[in-house]
Amino acid sequence: MKAGSVVLRCVVILGCVMTRSALAHHSAVAYDTTQSVTLTGTVVEWLWANPHCSLSFDVKDPSGKVQRWSAETVPPADLLSRGWSRKMFQPGDTVTVSMNPGRHGEPIGRINTVTVNGKTFGGAVPGANRGGGAPGGDGGMAAN
């Protein structure tokens, strides 16, 4: 076997492995995409970073017990065109989050829309609300 052929085969195999890893990373397998939950809570942290932004917020149940939720979105570059920003959430802000919950009852989710300071932002899920922002929206931001 020629050296060039061996190198080409290695490059092809490496490319297939990397593509599979990338597809697995962007999978929604952790979330129940057939369900949507809407929760209101208090922002703890807003992480604006690749590969996904994430929002941590505390939710009180009827008995007063607090549960910390963590919900992810798409990368910052995708959110910018929908009106989202690095400084849109501050610790202590009240948010209402609509999301696909974790498949096994864990307090995680994939954000569909979020309302903060009277404005609803959409398009946080790959392929969702593209070009339309929040349902009935205006490119990612709709006033309530």
Quick overview of this protein structure:
The protein has 144 residues and is an alpha+beta fold. The protein is built from two helices and seven strands, in the order αβββαββββ. It has two domains: 1-29; 37-143, OB fold (Dihydrolipoamide Acetyltransferase, E2P) (Beta Barrel), CATH 2.40.50.
Q: What is the tally of beta strands?
A: 7
Gross morphology: globular
Helix content: 10-25%
Low-confidence stretches: 14-25, 129-144
Architecture blueprint of SSEs:
Elements: H1 3-25, E1 37-47, E2 54-60, E3 66-72, H2 76-80, E4 94-101, E5 108-116, E6 119-122, E7 141-143
Give a structural overview.
This protein is α+β, with helices and mostly antiparallel strands and 144 residues long. It folds into two domains: 1-29; 37-143, Nucleic acid-binding proteins (OB fold (Dihydrolipoamide Acetyltransferase, E2P)). Helices cover 19% and strands 34% of the residues. It is built from two helices and seven strands, in the order αβββαββββ. It has helices spanning 3-25, 76-80; strands spanning 37-47, 54-60, 66-72, 94-101, 108-116, 119-122, 141-143. The chain has a five-stranded mixed barrel with strand order 1-2-3-5-4. The longest helix has 23 residues, at 3-25. Mean pLDDT is 79; it is low at 14-25 and 129-144.
